[in-house]
Write a structure and sequence with these properties.
single chain, about 200 residues, alpha+beta, Lipocalin, 8-stranded antiparallel beta barrel, 2 helices, about 15% helix
């Protein structure tokens, strides 16, 4: 390759870098802070009330593109053994093979596939893997918030999300029919997520 061609190739690479550089400048990586994040859930009980619980251990990475938020990505892993409804006997049943079977499926995961702006919120589409089954789900997200600096000098952001799933879609189908009609446990599960993010250094 002669000198003229080398200069042309170098020029093309430089131009490509200058075009992509602004995108790099606006993209940033944030780690989910497990100490300040949780995944809550709510399900109907006996068709008369709601039982709430939480998975207290969640980890993951959020890549935020502030120039084009729809190019952001999310991956998260939830420790199913951290399930807590405040009642030990109920927790043991929910962790058993009748429901989540945490001994066989100790984690569930979410991997985003698309981010869509929805007014002041975002719809984060992705694949949720639970109980060995992977199905698409949509998270309605508020955030991410503006950056703040904590007392240790770390940059932080926060976000909240909600979603609804049918537990039977994931093979979690245990139930009992009530004498008066209806069932002991509802099929629809409402998920509420609170995450605090720390900017990766």
């Amino acid at each position: 390759m002669n000198r003229v061609m080398l200069h042309k190739v170098a020029g093309l690479f430089t131009a490509a870098f200058l075009i992509m550089a602004p995108a790099f400048a606006f993209a940033s990586t944030w780690n989910i802070d497990p100490d300040h994040s949780s995944v809550g859930f709510k399900v109907r009980h006996l068709m008369i009330s709601n039982v709430k619980g939480v998975f207290g251990k969640v980890a993951g990475v959020v890549n935020v593109d502030d120039k084009d938020i729809t190019k952001s990505t999310v991956t998260a892993t939830i420790d199913t053994t951290s399930l807590d409804t405040g009642v030990a006997k109920r927790d043991a049943h929910l962790k058993s093979p009748d429901f989540i079977d945490v001994a066989k499926y100790p984690t569930m995961t979410f991997v985003s596939t698309k981010v869509v702006a929805n007014g002041k919120k975002l719809n984060v589409l992705g694949d949720l893997t639970l109980h060995g089954v992977t199905r698409p789900v949509v998270l309605e997200v508020e955030g991410p918030s503006a950056e703040v600096k904590d007392p240790m000098g770390n940059l932080r952001r926060g976000a909240s999300a909600t979603a609804k799933i049918n537990r039977k879609d994931y093979g979690v189908s245990w139930n009992k029919v009530l004498e008066a009609g209806g069932v002991a446990v509802g099929d629809e599960v409402t998920i509420n997520i609170e995450v605090e993010l720390i900017k990766a250094k």
